[in-house]
Write a structure and sequence with these properties.
Radius of gyration: 38 Å
Oligomer: single chain
Number of helices: 19
Length: 1122
């Protein structure tokens, strides 16, 4: 505390008058702003400019006047959170509301706290009520309602606990994860006036009840040791402690103040040494707060005046602050003399977000050919007519003015000899003017257009903001993988509850078959549910799909049949996938026909020879129903009759068609007529729209409401009847009537001038929620773009650019019937055997009947990868590089170690080498430790296993509740194609992160563990064990309260080594294929594997980080790698 501290002369809010009825004040932690909340729910911010004046910055009525005063502020990088009695409000610092939460259980809120550091995305809100709220700040949603142990009036977050003060003078210490009360401390006998917590200490001041008198302020400030959970020596304050705060930068220095302006600055460990200050105030103090830098105090008195105290030579609210965003200054208008000498290009034009009428596209052009040459008048003179009197020309003498097959190009001789050049231009203009705008292409809305992923050269896909394209809780799928045209179909199947349940039950069973599509669907469904809005990849599913030889024959692979239309390809792929997953289901459970009953419609197919009338019948099962559109030219059909959807579906069930086949009666090939009699309809109806074969029928889909959300199907005898709309009402209670609801559909979005057509899906996600909901919730899934849409928009096919391809209906009684019983019946046997093909034996397994994976079990993990495909780069005319497709890699080795503290801690129980069947272009031996032949089952000495077995082990650990510990886990999980929730992994690169900078695993091991790892080639067991030891070391630092200091020291040591390394390295240019950071880059060199081939060198510029040694393995991102 500088002796020069004094009250600062302020000019506050000169334009708008005094601040009325101040309820709370707070300093911003990110910018030089002071926030004030009044008793009417209004929030005002004041900025601290160079002029040393408080100038009003923003103001907003965040809460209604009925709620009373603003109780508290919290700040993070994105904005400001405020709480009042019945609502929680979040806005950016420019006073633009991001979300506003109200709930029937919000009765009298008064306090809140982050559940982690200030960068946490979750807060806990409580008050004088029996319910607390756990809120997601990013989503603006209530995650959980937590019962409160008491009525709380204040909350402070410490390193270990959330300290919640009650209205009776006691304090509850809440665990930040479970939110359970760990201990209760009776601090004051009446109530608490102020408190603050930092690191391991809590300081409070309050009121105590005196015998036969009113409560009065205590003459001590009480101190509590949060680490030992016991009371420490109090701080004496005879004037009556009304306000208390721990210095933001000095963790043991406490400021205690009275209502009349007396201030004591004391050290918690040495309460005898006190510095006394006094502020001269005309009125009693009502609020006191210290800035995050500790250099400025803000004091509000009972006259609603704010006083700032500090040193005039060092005024700063934050240590590192961002400048507030101010309005752009208005540009003075320029006087321009409009005359013949002034070019019109100097007049600026506005930017338009919509296409102008003057922007004529290619579709609006009318090609006008050259008019035919005029007929020579001499020909008419010599024309001879037919003598029969028919008036037809019979013959004419050739005047021979030009050679044979030649015409005169003289523009004066035109049609009929009367048109001039001017008339011809006018005629063309008139024809262009008659082109109807309705016949032109409609503009495809941006939400439906193909979204392309952009990759950052430094961070790769991590630099792409997926949250900008998806603000829902439903995950999308990335579209940078071959055959990702299946993404929309996968999404619809995922939200089909019956398919989802069976797929997850299957994957939780004993199936270990390589290439099982049903298992891959189950893995993918589980990943999408756990992701909760984060974009995922269908990499393993699409790899299994592409590996099927039947897929090549059917022409449904993009790499083998790139010219096939997307709608026809998807229709064929839809039928193929359904057949495969039914076969996969029966392969494991031969006598379980649950999936067949769910997907297959049973019928009796009849064939009749049109030659001899011979009839044959056979049983037939249909996985897909093709809509059949009635012929509009039938004699018995009214001219204006519009067929309903139910009619086309009924014709599709009957499947009446003609074809040639072998007749047993005629004993020869003849025309056959076939028709199906439906016996049983499946629980899930998967329907092909069939418009690729009947394009004229698309006009039916343009009728409003033509596609019904609900249909009924009645099967009686050999007759099937499909009903919809008002006609369905009388049949709802019929025993033979089954009701179906539309789950979703896949539609083709026509291409634009710069993009080809692609597929999207529209899904009613309400039917797959665990909580029943009556209203529909339609969403658009355009790969990783996910957005809610109105039902009318989802089912509207009037725009010509939107065409239905596949529809999925499901029985109505299956709505919201989510079955999670598979989680209790998971087959854990793969964790207890190696699964290798050559049966060499692998000691790295769990011991049966002795070792179990329980929720919360710590395991250390590391994976190594090999390169299958280089990244594809597009270089523009300006020499700018754009990554079209990132490098593709495959997992080559997976190692998982035991955690805990027993004798087996740090020993591996999974160390699998994985078979890679695709050509490997680079083993990256220096970083993966893998070499040629290690992943080939015929030549490897490591007993490699199939990817399916290794992946299922990882999936089992995830669903058993294990907590993964590793270094740079983002890229490991991404390349393994698995999503692990944040609460189930601990990344040591983040534990020792400072700002945006992370440190290499080898450096951290050397600095903290005094071990040299990654000497030579990498070893995944060594890396995983080092990460486990670093985690334990970080826990020791946290217990001592020295983690922040240790991290600062590590980063300082790294900077010293980096500076020394740069001085030692010779200065030279680094080209493609040269050493980057002391090692060979995979783009230009390194070990090549089987199938390697020369590459076109890529031009590189020397970035500021080249040669720094900060880079990790090329298969890992930045400093996150191990």
């Amino acid at each position: 505390m500088d002796s020069e501290w004094q009250e600062l002369p302020l000019t506050q809010d000169n334009q708008f008058g005094p601040i009325p009825n101040i309820a709370t004040i707070a300093f911003d932690t990110q910018q030089e702003l002071l926030w004030v909340g009044d008793i009417h729910g209004r929030i005002t911010s004041y900025r601290w400019p160079i002029e040393r004046q408080l100038l009003r910055y923003t103001a907003l009525n965040a809460h209604t006047e009925d709620e009373g005063p603003v109780q508290q502020f919290l700040f993070n990088e994105k904005g400001v959170i405020s709480v009042a009695a019945k609502s929680v409000h979040f806005m950016i610092r420019r006073a633009l509301t991001q979300w506003h939460l109200e709930d029937k259980d919000m009765i009298d809120l008064s306090c809140m706290s982050f559940l982690g550091k200030e960068s946490s995305h979750q807060i806990l809100v409580g008050g004088r009520q029996k319910v607390m709220f756990k809120i997601d700040v990013d989503e603006g949603s209530i995650l959980e309602k937590v019962p409160a142990n008491s009525d709380y009036i204040m909350m402070k977050h410490s390193r270990l606990y959330i300290c919640a003060a009650t209205n009776t003078g006691s304090i509850d210490f809440l665990h930040p994860v479970t939110l359970q009360v760990v201990k209760t401390w009776s601090a004051h006998s009446s109530k608490i006036s102020s408190m603050d917590a930092k690191n391991d200490f809590l300081v409070t001041c309050g009121w105590s009840t005196r015998p036969h008198g009113n409560p009065s302020l205590d003459t001590i400030a009480k101190v509590y040791d949060l680490k030992k959970l016991e009371q420490a020596a109090p701080i004496s304050f005879p004037a009556g402690a009304a306000f208390v705060q721990i210095h933001p930068k000095l963790s043991t220095t406490t400021v205690v103040a009275s209502q009349n302006g007396q201030i004591h600055v004391a050290d918690i460990h040495n309460t005898d040494h006190v510095k006394v200050l006094h502020m001269t105030l005309a009125h009693f103090m009502s609020l006191m707060i210290m800035s995050p830098s500790g250099k400025v105090w803000a004091i509000a008195d009972q006259d609603n005046t704010i006083h700032l105290w500090g040193s005039p030579h060092d005024l700063q609210f934050c240590e590192i602050s961002k400048p507030p965003e101010l309005a752009d200054p208005s540009m003075p208008s320029l006087h321009m003399a409009v005359d013949a000498d002034m070019p019109l290009s100097t007049i600026g034009m506005p930017y338009y977000y919509e296409s102008l009428f003057s922007n004529w596209g290619y579709d609006r052009e009318l090609k006008v050919q050259k008019p035919p040459a005029a007929i020579d008048p001499d020909i008419f003179k010599q024309l001879r007519l037919d003598p029969t009197g028919s008036g037809r020309a019979q013959w004419v003498t050739n005047p021979r003015k030009v050679r044979r097959n030649q015409v005169d190009l003289n523009e004066s001789h035109l049609v009929n000899g009367s048109s001039t050049s001017k008339n011809r231009i006018s005629d063309t203009t008139n024809r262009l003017a008659n082109v109807a705008l309705s016949a032109t292409k409609e503009v495809v809305p941006q939400l439906y257009q193909y979204a392309r992923m952009n990759y950052d050269h430094k961070h790769g896909v991590k630099g792409f903001d997926f949250e900008h394209y998806n603000k829902t809780a439903h995950s999308g799928l990335e579209n940078d993988i071959i055959n990702c045209y299946l993404n929309p179909l996968i999404q619809v199947l995922r939200f089909t509850v019956l398919v989802r349940n069976l797929a997850l039950h299957h994957v939780a069973g004993s199936c270990l078959s390589e290439g099982c599509l049903l298992c891959e669907l189950g893995f993918l469904f589980d990943m999408l549910e756990k992701a909760g809005g984060t974009a995922c990849r269908a990499m393993n599913f699409l790899k299994a799909f592409s590996s099927r030889p039947e897929a090549v024959k059917l022409g449904i692979l993009e790499e083998s049949s790139p010219r096939n239309k997307s709608d026809a390809r998807l229709s064929t792929a839809n039928r193929f996938i359904l057949e495969q997953i039914c076969n996969d289901f029966r392969r494991v459970l031969q006598y379980d026909f649950s999936l067949d009953q769910t997907l297959k419609t049973n019928g009796l197919q009849g064939y009749q020879c049109l030659n001899c009338g011979f009839e044959t019948h056979r049983n037939e099962f249909s996985l897909v129903i093709n809509l059949m559109y009635p012929d509009s030219n039938l004699f018995n059909r009214p001219r204006n009759h519009v067929p309903k959807f139910s009619e086309t579906l009924g014709l599709g069930f009957q499947g009446e068609q003609r074809s040639r086949g072998w007749c047993l009666g005629c004993k020869k090939y003849a025309s056959m007529e076939s028709q199906r009699n439906v016996v049983r309809v499946s629980d899930v109806l998967i329907i092909n729209a069939g418009l690729e074969k009947s394009p004229k029928s698309r006009q039916l889909w343009t009728n409003p409401g033509w596609l019904p959300h609900e249909i009924g199907i009645t099967v009686e005898g050999n007759h099937i009847m499909c009903i919809e709309g008002q006609q369905l009402q009388p049949f709802r209670n019929y025993r033979s009537t089954t009701l179906y609801e539309l789950v979703g559909l896949v539609a083709e979005i026509s291409g634009t001038e710069t993009q080809s057509s692609h597929l999207v899906s529209f899904i009613d996600v309400a039917g797959s929620n665990r909580e029943p909901q009556t209203e529909s919730q339609w969403h658009l899934f355009n790969d990783f773009v996910v957005a809610p849409v109105d039902q009318r928009e989802a089912l509207d096919f009037a725009p010509h650019w939107k065409t239905p391809v596949v529809l999925i209906y499901q029985v109505s009684h299956a709505r919201n019937s989510i079955d999670d019983s598979w989680k209790k019946a998971i087959d854990i046997n793969p964790l207890y055997y190696d699964g290798s093909m050559n049966h060499l034996g692998n000691p790295h397994t769990l011991t049966p009947n002795e070792e179990y994976i329980l929720p919360g079990t710590h395991v250390a993990i590391d994976a190594e990868f090999v390169v299958l495909q280089r990244k594809e780069i597009e270089i523009s005319y300006s020499q700018t590089e754009h990554i079209i497709r990132p490098p593709r890699s495959a997992i080559g080795r997976l190692s998982v170690l035991r955690g805990g503290s027993g004798p087996t801690s740090g020993l591996p129980f999974i160390d699998d080498y994985i078979i890679v069947t695709e050509p490997i272009i680079d083993y990256v031996t220096q970083y993966s430790g893998l070499s040629e032949g290690d992943l080939n089952p015929t030549t490897s000495r490591h007993a490699p296993i199939h990817l399916k077995v290794a992946y299922k082990k990882l999936w089992l650990l995830l669903n058993l509740g294990a907590i993964f510990i590793g270094h740079g886990l983002y890229n490991d999980f991404r390349n393994c194609n698995i999503h692990v929730p944040d609460e189930q992994y601990i990344d040591t690169s983040k534990l020792f992160q400072k700002g945006e900078y992370t440190l290499r695993l080898s450096f951290l091991a050397n600095h903290f563990l005094k071990e040299d790892i990654q000497v030579g080639n990498h070893d995944s067991i060594e890396d995983a064990r080092s990460a486990l030891q670093l985690y334990r070391k970080a826990q020791e630092f946290i217990a001592k309260g020295t983690l922040e200091q240790e991290v600062d020291g590590a980063h300082e040591e790294w900077r010293k080594r980096l500076a020394f390394q740069r001085l030692e390295e010779p200065r030279r240019d680094i080209g493609a294929g040269e050493l980057l950071g002391g090692r060979m880059t995979p783009e230009g060199g390194g070990r090549r594997g089987v199938g390697s081939r020369p590459e076109t060198p890529v031009r590189r510029g020397r970035g500021r980080e080249e040669g720094s040694g900060l880079f990790e393995s090329p298969l890992r991102g930045g400093g996150d790698g191990g």
